[in-house]
């Protein structure tokens, strides 16, 4: 579906640093270059980032470190240095600000830019190319960029030629591009939702586009309208430079209902790793931990606990979640879904180092 010609076509760029944390480490330590590198800890830790050399073995972020070591025995683990990553991120954002005030950071290593009213006689593609060159000059790192007429497509485009690539999806090609992709590539469709779609025979964007809005909303609730739109290359979300994040969360739906409390604690540990990683990446801290539980019969509850101060570590957050789970776990239907959310967010103080011991074991 081509955008309505009566509507102004936006010029959106999504810039994504390539294997950001690992690339910073390889930049700063020549001995790591060309080798499989993971940022994180070996014992009881998870991979925060993996170099492209490590990814060839199947190593991915948020993967348990011990599993990563089994996949890649030569994997080199490096302790995270979030103060360095934040400093590099500030260099990159300063470059963005020279081209447009409409910059929406998603994390330390990626952001949307709206160039619609800030082309100054150039084009979004030329500016994206220039930004990538300036990032390389200023930081010694590479970035990939996607250019399109909305945020959804720009983010998809930035993935097409990684690392160090540039890809453009013009308005007339948006719907066709989306419909040729497997649904697992869609941002906003996670593994559990993809599995549900596949159960309905929805394997690609084209399959998704053939579904009616009523069908999608009946099966996927309020997200149905979003899926209907993106399958047609439609995304009306604006780039919001002053986006204030209210919470950071992670959840997972299990193919087999959890009935053992020890297994549930392990599942919560994986979620805590993910939430704490995102919290640290965004340089945020929070005071309220919320547990979400969905039972096998689809009943859903939430339980929350707030502290008078910020939660200090991943381990403290996990302990709070486990305490919230204890009185509500026993149910004859088992647990279908678990989720952890950290809210009451505020910026971490710049004069204190991020606490990483719970997430990235320092061995």
UniProtKB/TrEMBL annotation:
A single GO BP: error-prone translesion synthesis
Residues at which Mg(2+) binds: 16, 109
EC numbers on record: 2.7.7.7
Annotated protein name in UniProt: DNA polymerase IV
UniProt site (Substrate discrimination): 21
Subcellular location: Cytoplasm
Catalytic machinery residues: 110
Gene: dinB
GO molecular function, one term: magnesium ion binding
Cofactor binding, per record: Binds 2 magnesium ions per subunit.
Keyword Magnesium: yes
Limits of the UmuC domain: 12-190
Keywords, ordered alphabetically: Cytoplasm, DNA damage, DNA repair, DNA replication, DNA-binding, DNA-directed DNA polymerase, Magnesium, Metal-binding, Mutator protein, Nucleotidyltransferase, Transferase
Cofactor list: Mg(2+)
The organism's place on the tree of life at top rank: Bacteria
Subunit structure: Monomer.
Main location: cytoplasm
PROSITE patterns, per the entry: UMUC
Known catalytic reactions: DNA(n) + a 2'-deoxyribonucleoside 5'-triphosphate = DNA(n+1) + diphosphate
The family this protein is said to belong to: Belongs to the DNA polymerase type-Y family.
Functional summary from the UniProt entry: Poorly processive, error-prone DNA polymerase involved in untargeted mutagenesis. Copies undamaged DNA at stalled replication forks, which arise in vivo from mismatched or misaligned primer ends. These misaligned primers can be extended by PolIV. Exhibits no 3'-5' exonuclease (proofreading) activity. May be involved in translesional synthesis, in conjunction with the beta clamp from PolIII.
One Pfam assignment: IMS
GO cellular component: cytosol
SUPFAM superfamilies documented for this protein: DNA/RNA polymerases, Lesion bypass DNA polymerase (Y-family), little finger domain
Annotated InterPro entries: DNA/RNA_pol_sf (IPR043502), DNA_pol_Y-fam_lit_finger_sf (IPR036775), DNA_pol_Y-fam_little_finger (IPR017961), DNA_polymerase-Y (IPR050116), DNApol_IV (IPR022880), PolY_HhH_motif (IPR024728), Rev_trsase/Diguanyl_cyclase (IPR043128), UmuC (IPR001126)
């Amino acid at each position: 579906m081509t955008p309505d010609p009566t509507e102004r076509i936006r010029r959106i760029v999504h810039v994504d640093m390539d294997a950001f944390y690992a690339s910073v480490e390889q930049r700063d330590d020549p001995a790591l270059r060309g080798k499989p590198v993971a940022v994180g800890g070996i014992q009881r830790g998870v991979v925060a980032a993996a170099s492209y050399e490590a990814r060839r073995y199947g190593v991915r972020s948020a993967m348990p470190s011990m599993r990563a070591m089994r996949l890649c025995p030569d994997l080199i683990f490096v302790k995270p240095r979030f103060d360095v990553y934040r400093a590099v991120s500030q260099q990159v954002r300063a470059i963005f600000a020279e081209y447009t005030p409409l910059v929406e950071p998603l994390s330390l290593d990626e952001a949307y830019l709206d160039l619609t009213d800030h082309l100054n006689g150039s084009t979004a593609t030329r500016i994206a190319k220039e930004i990538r060159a300036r990032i390389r000059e200023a930081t010694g790192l590479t970035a990939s960029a996607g250019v399109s007429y909305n945020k959804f497509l720009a983010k998809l485009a930035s993935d097409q030629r990684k690392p160090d690539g540039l890809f453009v999806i013009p308005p007339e090609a948006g719907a066709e591009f989306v419909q040729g992709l497997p649904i697992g590539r869609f941002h906003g469709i996670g593994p559990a939702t993809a599995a549900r779609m596949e159960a309905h025979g929805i394997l690609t964007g084209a399959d998704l586009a053939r579904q009616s809005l009523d069908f999608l909303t009946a099966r996927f609730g309020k997200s149905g309208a979003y899926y209907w739109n993106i399958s047609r290359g439609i995304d009306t979300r604006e780039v919001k430079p002053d986006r204030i994040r209210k919470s950071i969360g992670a959840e997972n739906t299990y193919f087999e209902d959890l009935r053992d409390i020890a297994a549930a604690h392990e599942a919560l540990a994986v979620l805590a790793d993910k939430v704490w990683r995102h919290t640290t990446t965004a340089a945020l801290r929070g005071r309220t931990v919320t547990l979400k539980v969905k039972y096998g019969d689809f009943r859903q509850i939430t339980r929350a606990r707030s502290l008078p101060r910020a939660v200090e570590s991943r381990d403290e957050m996990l302990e709070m979640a486990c305490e919230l789970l204890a009185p509500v776990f026993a149910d004859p239907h088992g647990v279908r879904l678990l989720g952890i959310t950290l809210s009451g967010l505020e910026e971490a103080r710049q004069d204190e180092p991020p606490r990483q011991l719970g997430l990235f074991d320092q061995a």
